Amino acid sequence: MTIFEAIGIAGTGVTVNRKWMDAVSDNLANMNTAVSADEDAFQARYVVAREAGDGKGVQMGGIVLGGTEGRLAYEPDNPLANEDGYVKYPDIDMSTQMTSLLMAQRAYQANLAVVDRAKDAYQAALQLGKG
After folding, report:
1. How far apart are CA 75 and CA 21, in angstroms?
2. Can you spell out the DSSP letters for 101-130?
3. Distance between CA 105 and CA 59 in Å, rounded?
C-alpha cells in the first residue's frame, strides 16, 4: 500500500463517518417532534456502510429508516393531539444515539489521524529526496 492509497482509504472512512454523524444529529434533532397519533412518527436514520467497490476503503451502502410506530403520549393540551388526547413521538433513545455519535466521532478522528500521519510520511520522504 502506498502513502496515497492510505490517504484515499482513510478519506473514504471520513466521508462515511461524517454521514453517520449527520444521521445521528438528525435523529437527535427530531426525537421530540410530535405529530398527531394518527400520523407516522419521524423515522430515525441509520447509516449502512459497505466495502468500497475497489476493495480499498468503505462507502455508503445506504440509509435505513426506522419504524414509524413511535410512542404515544397523553397530552390533551397539545394542539396536535387527536380526539383522545394523544400525540406520537419518534421512538428514539437518546443514550443510544449519543453512543453512536461518540463512536462516529472517534472513527472520524482516527481516519483523520491516518491522513495526517500519511501526509507526514510523504513530507519526510520528500525531504530525504532533497538531501
Report:
1. 32
2. HHHHHHHHHHHHHHHHHHHHHHHHHHHHHH
3. 17
**The whole model's pTM is what?**
0.85
With a pLDDT cut of 70, the percent of the chain lying above it is: 97
Q: Is residue 17 within 8 Å of residue 104, measured between CB atoms?
A: yes
Comparison of pLDDT for 88 and 6, the residue scoring more: 88
Helices (H) and strands (E) in the chain, counts: 2, 5
Residue 101 has pLDDT above 90, yes or no: yes
Q: What percent of the chain has pLDDT over 90?
A: 76
What span, in angstroms and rounded, lies between the C-alpha atoms of 82 and 31? Answer: 20
The residue type found at 125 is A
**Are 63 and 48 in contact, with CB atoms under 8 Å apart?**
yes
